Amino acid sequence: xxxxxxxxxxxxSQPEPPLTAPFSEWLAWALTRHGYDLDERGAxxxxxxASGIPPATVSRLLRDTGxxxxxxxYAIGRxxxxxxxxxxxxxxxxxxxxxxxxxxxxxxxxxxxxxxEALTALGLTTDTxxxxxxxxxxxxxxKHRREDTS
Length: 150
What we know:
By secondary structure, the chain is mainly alpha-helical. It has 8 helices and 2 strands; from the N terminus they run ββαααααααα. It has helices spanning 23-33, 43-51, 55-62, 70-80, 85-90, 97-101, 115-121, 127-147; strands spanning 5-6, 9-10. Strands 1-2 form a two-stranded antiparallel ribbon. Helix 2 (43-51) packs across helix 3 (55-62).
């Protein structure tokens, strides 16, 4: 997986941008951290399909030509498996102070529910890598069936 670069920084290896950073910078960081290669052809389409956000909106948000509306913030939270409150603050819908008063319940890790989500969670974004993992799983499953184990 190639990580996206901004001003010489690899987003996948950087700490989370501060709340004052542009929304596009945080979104690129978060998507890269969750296995999306933003330089890959079709990445924005994959993000749009996985989130339900229109492709034009995904592109606009990553180009820093606007802030997401409330429903888009919620869709981003679902896609990334994170709480929506910090996203709403980053999008300018709420002041940063709300994060100080928000109950700090432990965040549940996002559990992939589909094969595509599981492969993305593993950082596999290319068709070739995904096909290789599927082939390995099929081979192991066939081996267990032959040996009558699971």
